[in-house]
Amino acid sequence: MKTAMNFINGKWVSSKTNQFADNTNPATGELLGRVIQSDQSDVNAAVLAAKEAQKQWRLVPAPQRAEILFRIGAMLKDQKEQLSQMLTLEMGKVIDEARGEVQEAIDMAFYMAGEGRRLFGHTTPSELGSKFAMSVREPIGVVGIITPWNFPIAIASWKAFPAIAAGNTIIWKPATETPFLAEAFVKIFEEAGLPDGVVNLVYGTGLEVGSAIVEHPHIQVISFTGSNEVGRTIAERGGKLLKRVSLEMGGKNAVIVMDDADLDLAIDGIVWSAFGTSGQRCTACSRIIVHRKVKTELENRLIERMRSLKIGNGLDETVQIGPVIHEQALDRIHNYVEIGKREGAKLLVGGRKLSNRSLAGGNYYAPTLFTDVSPSMRIAKEEIFGPVTSLIPVDSLEEAVDVNNNVSYGLSSSIFTKNVNKVFQALRDLDTGIVYVNTGTTGAEIHLPFGGTKETGNGHRDSGLAALDVFTEWKSIYIDYSEKLQRAQIDV
Ligand code: UN1
């Protein structure tokens, strides 16, 4: 059987635990292979290798480090189709979206490769004569990267590429649900010429491997994307050890539809953002805040569109909505639908698991729409992470902004309107880390910072230049060439 192994110090190795987890195709339930479940001793071995490798890696000039990223980008491009097929097979998203995700990793590789020739610092005037001052970015050391199954290659690239370009070495724990894609990604690193020990892969549970990474005294930075619950634990435990912890967690993202909006466009945006990836994006549109004047029309047209969506195995090019990741996810999503019904929300479409003959064995949930949802209901506040969205009627932009902002998350939001003043008012007042105008809540590009406010994160950002702030330390340098002692703040 296909078995995913750890990659430590340039070698594919097992673990003494000899324990494995099954990996299955969410579209069919078919067993794809198994994944080694490591323990603390594997993390220790990986950290030792990473620490040793970092001694040399930090001395490799940044343009040369980044040149490897160019090669990785080119190899990802060459293998784009195989990687996309593998992604659909093990994670379930439809093939077009899988291609889009691999493209994100390609874009990130080329973007960060260019950074090898910038990695800008600052030169600054000194208070004293004949004295030169500058600040430069330094690598931090060994970094721990913990990534989720919903964007297994894109999110890993947002974190690993800046970390590598900046001269750090890595311990990567990918999600157990997407092991073979992680393996393929690391094989590309290896073939592109990344020295042994620069990237190490350790598979296992959060409880065992995740904890070992967070607690390891030689890991200085932890970059995590995943659930709020796990993120909080990492922040608490990492914080106690004075580590830098970068967290990217949930969202409760809203599309605002004003009364002058182009409704065809709004429906395209909503359907794409709410049901694409079966709603399993942290940027997914899980609230539609609609002006009461266009509510009924939007409802009717959305219902019609949702009924036409083709659901099935994402490898079929004509399928628009794939399965959700596993049975527990199906149950969790369905539980939220039950909660919504109990809270008094009106179910318009969906609200059930799908298991007719062509979908048998897979984890399919019908795209679901609630209406007459009030902002205080749990389905309007909590992240569902499935193909479920809720219409919340409002009477003005001010009310829409209030509803948008009045949740604990702050990742993404969007507004559909033709009124330029309303656009700028919304841009000023929406409190999310990402805001879209006249398009849905998904589709962030890698050269802009990715992340959110409030309980979505803890102030850091993935991708964009902002990612360098997670993986570098500033070093301030003063060079006095006056050939005498000049006393700062005194001899001025
Ligand atoms: C995520 O769901 O965690 O903006 C990432 C988007 C994608 C990335 C989503 N580019 O929807």
UniProtKB/TrEMBL annotation:
Active site: E248
Catalytic activity, as annotated: (2S)-3-sulfolactaldehyde + NAD(+) + H2O = (2S)-3-sulfolactate + NADH + 2 H(+)
Location of the Aldehyde dehydrogenase domain: 12-477
Pfam families: Aldedh
Nuclease recorded as keyword: no
PROSITE patterns cross-referenced by the UniProt entry: ALDEHYDE_DEHYDR_CYS (PS00070), ALDEHYDE_DEHYDR_GLU (PS00687)
EC number: 1.2.1.3, 1.2.1.97
Coiled-coil intervals: none
Record Gene3D superfamilies: Aldehyde Dehydrogenase, Chain A, domain 1 (3.40.605.10), Aldehyde Dehydrogenase, Chain A, domain 2 (3.40.309.10)
Keyword field contains Secreted: no
Record's keyword terms, sorted: NAD, Oxidoreductase
Gene Ontology MF annotations: aldehyde dehydrogenase (NAD+) activity
Biological role: Part of the sulfo-TAL (or sulfo-SFT) pathway, a D-sulfoquinovose degradation pathway that produces sulfolactate (SL). Catalyzes the oxidation of 3-sulfolactaldehyde (SLA) to sulfolactate (SL).
Subunit structure and binding partners: Homotetramer.
Family designation: Belongs to the aldehyde dehydrogenase family.
Protein's UniProt name: 3-sulfolactaldehyde dehydrogenase
Organism whose genome encodes this protein: Pueribacillus theae
